[in-house]
Design brief:
- It is a single chain.
- The chain is an alpha/beta fold and about 475 residues long.
- The chain has one domain (about 5-460): Amidase signature (AS) domain (Amidase signature (AS) enzymes, Alpha-Beta Complex).
- The protein contains 14 helices and 13 strands.
- The strands form two sheets. It has an eleven-stranded mixed β-sheet, with helices on both faces. Strands 10-11 form a two-stranded antiparallel ribbon.
Length: about 475
Amino acid sequence: MDKHEQAWRLSAVQLQQRYRSGTLTPRAVAQACLARLDAVNPRINAVIARREEAMLREADAATERYGTGKPLSAMDGIPVTIKDNLATADQAATWGSPALRAHRPARDELPVARLREAGALIIGKTNLPEFALEGYTDNRLFGVTSNPWNLALTPGGSSGGAVAGLAAGIAPLALGTDGGGSIRRPASHCGLVGFKPSIGAVARAGGLPSLLLDFEVVGPLARTVADARMMFDVLRGPRATDWRSFAASGARQTPRQKPLRILYVPTIAGAPVDPEIAANCAGAAKVFQSLGHIVDEGEMPLNLDFMTETWPLIGQVGLARLFEAQPEWRGGAASKYLDMAEAGAKYGASRLWRALEDIERLRQQCAAVFDAYDMLVTPAAAALPWPAREAYPPTIAGQSVGPRGHAVFTGWVNAAGLPALAVPAAPSSTGLPIGIQLIGAYGADDLLLDLGDAYEAAAPWADRWPDL
């Protein structure tokens, strides 16, 4: 194969360097990524809507800009995919639901608009579970998405199509959303980098209704930390339509000198963790010690018991409000989401108010935790990937668990509004990816990425590819 046919293997940073040197063009890369899409997508069902002709026209324009030495940004000419719960003006945003089969937004959601303005090449939309509310990827509109590392298993969710396409080489970057771990856990299941920014770090406007209060954020998925940073730098920044974005901009922290004080938390309240995940994440925590940081191991310094009851409540109330505001979307929704909405409609205002008080208390308590530590480190997911059509693994380490058993490490981070980064640890004995999660104080997004960079240099993973 020549270098153009292999261009889909290059990182976004490598592509940008090649464009500037004139040894590769956005047009050639776009063609390589589209060829890779044709080759692997039928097996994994990651991309559910493509925009080939438009992408090639935009690649030609990017090629001309590099030819005159005037690229729009570091992202100019870089292929990306967009999760199908993000509004795009030229494609449907179905949210994985037959109810929104024909829903065509009038404009791009703000993060998508920023990518377009930066010259990114959008290859298409990626699959997700209906309403992005579950940790696997299947729906009645587009079907199941498979994990490139084992086609019988799930890539996780809700950004399952995003990570499957990225791991398979369809594009070097993917735009996802994370409302309870939906970037970080799929990244861990596919051997990728997944970054959940602080609430407000990526301003939002013009999107679908929120089902999870302000928990859900938009963030990058990538093969390397440097690529994730490149995309984040284009996405970040305040906008008047999102007042939280001004808080995030003002809270930006200056990266500290080492040694950092890191707490490794192997489990939360005794929740079961797959033995290989436990062992490999403990080994990954030692890498930070080898980098000169102070690493302690201990229990989670927060009481998260309230999350067991509050987490399902938030989604149920969110769906109830969605169907109240958009009654035409109720008819096409799966019965389990109608049941969730019915349950949500029964909660009184005082119960929701109590949940809001619990969330505010958690956010205040986190400030004290990060006075004592610079970073928390946990596994990114408690379970290895499970069969692709199953919503969640029913057991972990021989113990029965519920729908959020695999997600014990992530949802509370969203409620707290903190930034978190998932990066690969050593894979399992059968080659399945495993990830660890780095969690920082509110506004410590850059510190997280700096630490992720150092970890990647010490324990690189970018040369690992699934055998497709």
